[in-house]
Design a protein that fits this description.
The complex is a heterotrimer. Chain A is built from twelve helices and ten strands. Chain A is of the alpha/beta class. In chain A, α2 packs across α6, α6 runs antiparallel to α7 and α7 runs parallel beside α12. Chain C is α/β, with parallel strands linked by helices. The chains are: A alpha/beta, B mainly alpha, C alpha/beta.
Chain lengths: 298, 654, 257
């Protein structure tokens, strides 16, 4: 179907398919047709990986939420929103005529349908008991190889390494103090980022010690009681993303929260929302935000 | 109280205390004066963490036990509790809506929002129940359906908003973690007020226990007593929900155990249930504490009680007395009857084909609507045809299952959703997602079918009992659904990103269906339809009840097994596409009946066509309303189905 | 000839014995009335005869000389037709369709109804005097019409024996007489047997050929209506002093003394 030209903006069909034509005019510079592979990303980590390689996808999923919640890296308006990650819009996917679809094992159940539209590249990022950072780094090379541009992968990896090295240097002063990365769930629970999360595994790369030493059992959503923070009195507490409104009130009056050594000593820092299920760009954002925040505080 | 009972209670109490002490073994006791200043961190963890947590478990358990006991007494219904009456789900929906759309409402805490949601759900269920004479089975079905609808909408809203908020996960799981004594103060106040109210209500409730008419004859204001008692129970339950989250089934288990231990009469039941509730929740929380001591993760206490409560409900059901007399559930009034259904059925079929054709040709693209030309149609056909065929097949299969179940049980509220097959299939799907890192479509399908089959086997085991009336079979299905949803929320609560996969599937989508799968589904619907036509004499006989059907030589047990198998098969297959909830199986048979298709064969055919049409419409709506975001099919079908359901249930019996 | 031979029949439910060691023969070709006070076991006995008693039963029941449990469902239904105490609503069904259901034991779930079935249905509608109502919805009929319609279903079943559980309890006095006359005529004209549970002793005496009285799950009396309508017998059955008056036409009438 992709090559049939059935929905290309030929004048005689314009009456029927004006809207589809508008889409194509916006999304598809005709001259680039053969040279640039048209990427469609179902998975956010894959989308970020493509962006890190300098290949902005022509379409990706849940862009409304991505732009609102995460915002970085910036997704241009020309990129088509394919709808929910859990239920991507296949017809729209077909209309944007991708030459490669970027997916991950989360979406195995669509893979037969995706493969009908275009070849699918599915790379794993989050596997139980494995550090996602290494996977994110490997994905740069794997995607670049799939795009027959291994040099782009090397360049992106080098850029990332340089940025991470810079962050490590800036954070060297903090190396002897562990960092507890958390997201606040409600006034009594938080989400912890162990080594099996992207954030947790990034800490090791920038020379920081993760205070969550035990595996978080691949559980980004599993709530951890707040009092677990008392087990790591030395740690610096870093809260990623906003605190829910109902939790603010609860934390303000919580005896335990105020008694926590990190809170009592003022070693609590806030980072903006970063994509916990992202690729290398999210790892870089974390490293950069940590370096900035901790260095400013020091 | 007998000696054995006293022994058992003390043993439980000891076990709960031992578990708590085990969790506290490494922490020092706080010193007097009891203020945080000057205490070490560990002393604070003890005095403002673990100690209030232990007290909260006792208080919340007692409150839930009391709430369940009041509900069971006033509704004369041994399976009534905040979970089975939809109160908890109402509170959940209110919290989800507030979190997603109006987070400002939560700044003052979750109390008012949860309370409003719980009260609204209770009012709806009671309104339905009042029109059906507070018949226990009708009440539980109404409560479960309202609850299922609320959960479905909550899930779908969460999903459609593209966010799954940690605070909601925690709330769904019911966590007892404390960091100060505020929770204790709230719950103690709640329990104290509740106990006072219960003491005042005990005597009117005893009068009410002889029945509404008799009680009114003795000069009791029945409506006032009922409303006050139910209101009190709802406030207690919603208060606990707001403070701690969903803690399922304690309210059901405590009075049941109290009765099993020999508490006769209303006074002892109201007195013993809170004690047992406190012990149950303390014991559960003790287990969770011991578990948390060994691993890094938290298992939420409410999820644990749900795992215990589902099987308990299934065990209780055969012991449920005071069922609905036959015929009282028919709330529709005489439906019209077409003299010549043939042309109408043909018209329906033509309309369905025309609609399907139209939906193939039109659709949204970025910027507007488009009618496809021939070439584009050829390009889009491989995408649109499978989902149209799958949606129509699933709708028809659900409608056929619903028709069979409604005729089998002579109950117009029967539907595949409450047979438990959908719930079982959901469990199978979730189990597969959790057991394997990246399961393929085929393995997922197999796991889902296995779950559905297992639920079916449980229901069948009950139908095999000779003295099991059809509406009980329905309740077994409801119990299986309730267990499934408890397990699912536990899985999601202790889970991770895989929870996403489950949530996505729960709300249903035709997007991932391939043509062979769609054709298999449609073929299956066709086979079930033909089997239904062949058995249409059974379907005519069964609504007349086992006495008539048996008297005419039909073995009702065998007929029940065959029809439940057929309905289960159809439901399980359709569930793979639509997710566990759609209400099409409920609506389509009704619409067919209201059209005047009275004979079983006509009703089957008409319902299948209407079901296929409804699902096509739902699929179209789900894809177009939020373009390019494809909304969950289950949500869209439920949005059509839920108002219908409520309208149906509030119609007064003629 | 004997219709039912009941030997040492005991039925227990938890905490209660419904039928206690009952031994009894019921004659064929008669209208048999089962009477007794509330809880005497008369409905239980009828359920046992209809094989619709869920609880376990002890003892033997022979039907036409064969153990009742030996007969398979549709075999039994060809010989034995049952009308429960309350007839269920027949939602959306016409009277003709209801009566046609009586042919189920003969053609089963899949068999095509033949001319014999159509004849039996037409004859049953005529015999019960409801042929004119054939196309009406059952739920729109009056109580008496509906009861005659259900009887027509039993007639279409073409069973030699009818078991009726209080068939007149919901009817006014005129319809009571009408329905019982119909049952009596059906039995006497077509050589059928009927076992009818009745509350009203005068109705039993007037319409039955043979009366069986139970008391506390045991046989209290068995015999002709004349045997029944004696003050000492009635007093023993109902545990209450009874008096028998004689009407102008010579029929006895029982009233509490």
């Amino acid at each position: 179907m992709v090559g049939s030209g059935a929905i290309s903006p030929r004048p005689d069909r314009r009456a029927f398919l004006t809207a589809a034509g508008v889409l194509l005019a916006a999304g598809l510079p005709l001259r680039a047709h053969a040279a640039q592979p048209r990427l469609a990303a179902i998975d956010w980590a894959m989308m970020e990986t493509a962006i890190a390689l300098g290949r902005m996808p022509v379409a990706a999923t849940e862009l409304i939420r991505y732009r609102a919640d995460i915002g970085q890296p910036v997704i241009p308006d020309a990129v088509t929103d394919l709808g929910l990650r859990g239920a991507p819009n296949f017809e729209l996917l077909q209309l944007v005529r991708p030459s490669l679809i970027l997916s991950s094992p989360y979406y195995t159940r669509f893979e037969p349908r995706l493969a009908e539209v275009a070849p699918v590249l599915s790379l794993p990022f989050f596997l139980p008991n494995e550090a996602p950072f290494a996977k994110a780094a490997a994905a740069l090379h794997a995607l670049a190889a799939a795009l027959q541009d291994p040099a782009a992968g090397d360049r992106a990896a080098a850029r990332a390494d340089a940025a991470l090295d810079r962050a490590r240097d800036r954070l060297a002063f903090h190396a002897d103090r562990p960092v507890a990365l958390v997201e606040i769930g409600d006034a009594r629970h938080l989400r912890a980022f162990g080594f099996d999360s992207l954030f947790g595994s990034t800490l090791a790369r920038i020379g920081l010690t993760n205070a969550w030493t035990s595996a978080t059992a691949f559980s980004f959503l599993a709530p951890v009681p707040l009092e677990r923070l008392a087990d790591m009195p030395q740690a610096t507490l870093v809260i990623i993303g906003p605190v829910p409104p109902e939790a603010r009130r609860g934390l303000a009056r919580s005896v335990l929260w105020r008694a926590l050594p990190q809170v009592a000593a003022g070693r609590v820092h806030r980072l903006p929302r970063i994509n916990a299920f992202g690729g290398m760009p999210s790892a870089l954002r974390l490293a950069d935000a940590l370096a900035k925040t901790l260095a400013e505080a020091a | 109280m007998t000696l054995g009972l006293r022994m058992m209670l003390s043993l439980w109490g000891l076990a709960a205390a031992a578990l708590w002490l085990w969790a506290a073994r490494d922490l020092p006791w706080p010193t007097w004066p009891f203020v945080p200043q000057g205490q070490s961190l560990d002393q604070i963890r003890m005095g403002w963490g673990l100690m209030p947590r232990g007290v909260v478990a006792l208080l919340a358990g007692a409150a839930l036990g009391l709430s369940g006991a009041i509900l069971q007494v006033v509704l004369r219904n041994p399976v009534a509790d905040p979970t089975t009456l939809g109160i908890s789900a109402g509170a959940q929906l209110a919290l989800v809506l507030a979190t997603v759309f109006a987070p400002g409402l939560l700044v003052k805490g979750q109390w008012p929002v949860a309370m409003a949601g719980g009260l609204a759900a209770a009012a709806l269920v009671l309104g339905i129940g009042a029109r059906r004479g507070f018949a226990p089975v009708a009440m539980v079905i109404a409560g479960m359906l309202v609850g299922l609808t609320a959960s479905a909408i909550a899930t779908a809203v969460t999903l459609a908003q593209g966010q799954y908020l940690l605070s909601l996960v925690i709330w769904n799981g019911g966590a007892l973690v404390q960091q100060d004594w505020t929770g204790v103060r709230h719950l103690a106040l709640l329990l104290g007020l509740g106990a006072m109210g219960a003491a005042l209500l005990a005597r009117p409730l005893r009068v009410l226990s002889i029945g509404a008419d008799g009680a009114a004859g003795l000069g009791l204001n029945v409506t006032l007593v009922r409303l006050t008692a139910v209101g009190l129970a709802v406030v207690i339950a919603a208060g606990v929900s707001a403070e701690l989250g969903l803690i399922a089934f304690v309210g059901l288990a405590a009075p049941a155990l109290a009765r099993a231990m020999g508490a006769r009469g209303i006074g002892p039941l109201l007195a013993l249930s809170p004690v047992l509730g406190a012990l149950i929740l303390s014991l559960s929380d003790g287990l969770v504490l011991a578990w948390a001591g060994t691993g890094g993760q938290t298992f939420l206490t409410g999820a644990l009680t749900g795992l215990v409560g589902g099987p308990l409900l299934i065990w209780l059901l055969p012991r449920l007395r005071g069922s609905t007399p036959p015929g009282t559930e028919a709330g529709d009034g005489p439906a019209p009857r077409l003299a010549r259904p043939g042309p109408w059925l043909a018209g329906l079929a033509v309309a369905l084909v025309v609609a399907a054709g139209l939906l193939l040709w039109i659709g949204r693209v970025p910027g507007g609507w488009a009618i496809l030309d021939r070439e584009s149609l050829a390009a889009f056909l491989p995408l649109r045809l499978p989902r149209l065929v799958a949606a129509a097949g699933a709708g028809a299969a659900l409608a056929l299952a619903g028709t069979m179940l409604q005729r089998l049980t002579a109950n117009p509220l029967a539907s595949p959703e409450v047979l438990g097959v959908s719930g079982g299939a959901a469990l199978g799907y979730a189990g597969t997602v959790f057991a394997l890192a990246a399961p393929g479509a085929l393995i997922l399908g197999a796991g889902t079918a296995a779950g559905g089959a297992l639920a079916l086997a449980v229901v069948m085991a009950f139908t095999a009992r000779r003295d099991m009336p059809p509406e009980r079979v329905l309740l077994v299905g409801i119990a299986v659904s309730a267990l499934a949803s408890a397990v699912l929320s536990a899985m999601i609560a202790v889970g991770d990103a895989r929870a996403w996969a489950i949530l996505a599937w729960l709300s249903g989508s035709t997007g991932a269906v391939t043509l062979p799968v769609a054709l298999i589904l449609a073929g299956l619907a066709l086979v079930v339809w033909m089997a239904g036509l062949a058995l249409s004499r059974w379907l005519a006989l069964l609504p007349l009840g086992p006495a008539i059907a048996g008297g005419l030589g039909l073995d009702p047990r065998r007929a029940r097994v065959v029809l439940i198998l057929l309905a289960g098969l159809a439901t399980g297959a359709a569930t793979l596409v639509t997710g566990p909830l759609s209400f099409v199986g409920l609506m389509a048979p009704h619409l067919a009946r209201r059209m005047g298709l009275a004979r079983p064969a006509d009703q089957l055919t008409g319902a299948a066509l209407i079901g296929a049409g409804l699902m096509l419409a739902a699929d179209f709506g789900a894809r177009m309303a939020g373009f390019p975001y494809e909304l969950p099919l289950g949500l869209f079908a439920s949005l059509i189905g839920a108002p219908w359901l409520i309208w149906l249930m509030t119609r007064r019996s003629p | 000839m004997t219709l039912f031979q009941i030997h040492d029949l005991t039925v227990r439910v938890p905490g209660r014995t419904l039928l206690d060691n009952l031994t009894l023969d019921l004659p064929a070709g008669r209208v048999i009335g089962l009477i007794g006070h509330n809880g005497s076991g008369k409905s239980t006995l009828l359920k046992v005869l209809a094989r619709q008693m869920p609880a376990r039963i002890e003892g033997t029941v022979l039907f036409d000389g064969r153990p009742l449990s030996d007969l398979r469902g549709r075999d039994l239904a060809r010989r034995l037709a049952v009308l429960p105490q309350t007839t269920p609503p027949a939602e959306g069904m016409t009277l003709a369709e209801l009566v046609a259901l009586g042919r189920y034991p003969w053609h089963g779930a899949l068999g095509r109804p033949g001319p014999a079935d159509h004849d039996a249905i037409a004859a049953a509608l005529r015999e019960c005097g409801v042929a004119a109502l054939a196309d009406r919805l059952v739920d729109t009929l009056s109580g008496g019409e509906r009861q005659r319609g259900w009887l027509a279903m039993l007639v279409a079943q073409a069973a030699g024996t009818l078991l009726l559980d209080e068939p007149i309890s919901a009817l006014d006095i005129a319809h009571q007489v009408e329905v019982l006359s119909l049952v009596r005529r059906m039995c006497h004209d077509q050589g059928r047997s009927a076992v009818i549970v009745l509350h009203e002793v005068n109705m039993a005496a007037r319409f039955c050929d043979h009366v069986v009285a139970l008391r506390g799950g045991r046989l209290a009396l068995q015999g002709s209506p004349a045997d029944l309508m004696r003050a000492p017998a009635l007093t023993q059955i109902y545990g209450l002093p009874m008096q028998v008056l004689t009407r102008d036409d010579g029929l006895p009438v029982a009233i509490p003394a």
